[in-house]
Specification:
about 260 residues, alpha/beta, 2 domains, 6-stranded mixed beta sheet, 10 strands, binds flavin mononucleotide, Flavoprotein-like_sf, metal-binding
Length: about 260
């Protein structure tokens, strides 16, 4: 089959999903149109893909699921029996039902999901888990995955709906959190945190002011800060971080379904 256009869609507050889907697109070996959905939670824009177009759609894994904030965005991507590749990027713990959920959303919205992949990114909560991933090895695997997708599409005889790992009913969403990262004494008021916040939860002028109702706990503000100027007061995630650092430090590898 001749693919007319490749579209990349991703939500990626700390950039690991973005790097991964771009490497897959590179492997596919065609020009692509990039749709960064990270700041699109209020956007009304709908996307309609034709039969001869392919969407590569990537989301990070939050609590073993697709992030709640992405589901509305994903439902704005419509296919007309178009092809899609589902990509979940997780922080070396587990992706549980996220890839299956993403695949199901794409299928329900008119796509034939011809490939899926679970890749690893540095964990948003701690630099000690999945450190600096996706690394060169991950990127090479993502590029190779893109090449396999290209070969599959070119072969013309292929399964149009692949199976991926995961269970339905999906596991329950994470509980809604009532705390958020705040500025600490290291903050120099550079306001980069405000710029990277996907939901505008951090005040433009005063990084000490945070709308905790808006915050999605993506850690983009913590990760971008080179001064260690943001943290959650009282460190309520310390047990989770300790679990991740002790039980999830063994390197996991990307899993491909094609
Ligand atoms: C709220 C939240 C929940 C997360 N839940 C999981 C999880 O269930 N399993 C896992 O391995 N990583 C989990 N992570 C880590 C992210 O999936 C991982 O760091 C991913 O690479 C972030 O993608 P991004 O860089 O595109 O934002 C979670 C991160 C956040 C912020």
């Amino acid at each position: 089959m001749v693919i007319k256009n490749v579209h990349l869609f991703y939500f990626s507050p700390t950039y690991t999903t973005k790097k991964t889907v771009k490497a897959i697109a590179e492997g596919l070996g065609a020009d692509f149109v990039e749709h960064d959905l990270t700041f699109s939670f209020e956007s009304e824009e709908e996307f309609y893909l034709q039969k001869d177009e392919i969407a590569i759609v990537g989301v990070p894994v939050y609590g073993g699921r697709t992030p709640v904030i992405t589901r509305n965005m994903l439902n704005k991507i419509h296919g007309d029996n178009s092809l899609a590749v589902a990509v979940a990027v997780y922080g070396n713990r587990d992706y549980d039902d996220a890839l299956l959920e993403l695949k199901d959303i794409l299928s329900e919205n008119g796509f034939s999901v011809i490939a899926g992949g679970a890749f690893i990114g540095e964990h948003s909560y701690t630099r000690k888990v999945g450190t600096r991933r996706p690394d060169d090895e991950d990127i090479a695997k993502a590029v190779a995955f893109g090449k396999d997708i290209r070969a599959k599409v070119d072969s013309d005889t292929y399964t149009k709906n692949i199976d991926v790992k995961g269970n339905f009913p999906y596991k329950a969403d994470m509980p809604v959190r009532v705390f958020s990262p705040m500025a600490n004494k290291n903050c120099i008021y550079c306001r980069k945190c405000h710029i990277v916040c996907p939901v505008g939860a951090i005040d433009k002028k005063d990084p000490e002011i945070v709308d905790v109702e808006k915050c999605i706990h993506c850690y983009a503000c913590v990760k971008i800060c080179t001064f260690n100027g943001r943290e959650i007061p009282g460190n309520p995630l310390k047990d989770i971080v300790a679990f991740l650092e002790t039980k999830c430090s063994e390197r996991k590898e990307p899993e491909i379904f094609i």
